[in-house]
Write a structure and sequence with these properties.
Blueprint lengths: L2 E5 L8 H14 L4 E5 L5 H5 L10 H6 L8 E4 L5 E5 L4 H9 L8 H9 L5 E5 L6 H9 L2 E6 L6 H14 L7 E7 L7 H14 L12 H8 L12 H21 L1
Parallel strand pairs: 1-5, 1-6, 2-4, 2-5, 6-7
Antiparallel strand pairs: 3-4
Helix pairs in contact: 1-10, 5-6
Length: 258
């Protein structure tokens, strides 16, 4: 059975999608079988893998009809690694509204995942910046949660809110646990970010991953062109730092989820 991980934070812009896509690519390059599921109507994860150009079905179809299989599209990164992608589209927003009146609405994604989880070593869920039906579906389908956060004081509130929400979701999914909090877009040159990082490690201790993801324009450039950070160019110093950061994070994920 696959290790299932939701990447979640109720605050937007904290790096959920880049964490999902590059962590998946890192694990895949190491030989793991990967499935990523885009649960966000903004469908940025779908675009980061370039799937929007070829898809003819999305997660919305499977959530609305239990008899429809998850649409999976295989993506080969130019720098190595194969990842299967379940894409999203803006239609997911309409689906989220329609599911409000459906029985067992929080369990639909889990039902689909249980049909395919033996095909993979890891399944990662990218979630929208809210605790709506789509995020709850991902949290119910997952065993673990990774929480990306910026090292900014205004980001701490969202972190605390998500922690409380996870406690609520354990009523539906008692096995759900926090795998770790990851500092994303971290700039060690800024005093505020270093102070917040120190506070996070004091407050949440071992729940914070040792590795952090540096702020880097190459990460954004890679995502916008539909490739992982590994294809951004090994000659670029910033890209090399980002690659090392994701490789270190992936090793921690493997160790903690074992």
């Amino acid at each position: 059975m696959a290790v299932t991980i939701a990447i979640a934070n109720q605050k937007g812009g904290v790096g959920k999608t880049t964490t999902t896509s590059n962590l998946a690519s890192t694990l895949a390059r190491a030989g793991s079988r990967l499935l990523v599921i885009d649960c966000d109507p903004q469908s940025n994860l779908t675009a980061s893998f370039g799937v929007e150009r070829v898809m003819d079905a999305t997660l919305a179809d499977a959530l609305m009809n239990r008899d429809v299989d998850l649409p999976r599209y295989r993506v080969s990164d130019p720098a190595g690694g194969i990842v299967d992608v379940v894409p999203a589209s803006p239609e997911l927003a309409r689906v989220e509204s329609a599911l409000q009146t459906k029985l067992g609405r929080e369990l639909r994604l889990r039902e689909h995942v249980l049909r395919v989880d033996r095909d993979y070593d890891y399944i990662l869920f990218d979630t929208p910046p809210s605790l709506g039906v789509l995020t709850i579906n991902a949290l119910v389908a997952a065993e673990w949660v990774i929480i990306p956060t910026e090292a900014r004081f205004f980001s701490l509130q969202g972190l605390q809110m998500l922690n409380e929400s996870i406690e609520e979701v354990t009523f539906l999914n008692p096995r759900l646990k926090v795998l770790g909090i990851v500092l994303s877009k971290f700039d060690r040159r800024l005093r505020e970010e270093k102070t917040v990082a120190e506070y996070l490690r004091e407050r949440w201790g071992a729940n914070v991953f040792e590795s952090d993801i540096p702020t880097n324009s190459k990460i954004l450039e890679a995502a916008s062109t539909g490739v992982s950070i590994f294809a951004a160019g090994s000659a670029n110093r910033g890209a090399r730092r980002a690659v090392l950061a994701y490789e270190t994070l992936a090793e921690e994920v493997r160790s903690r989820a074992a």
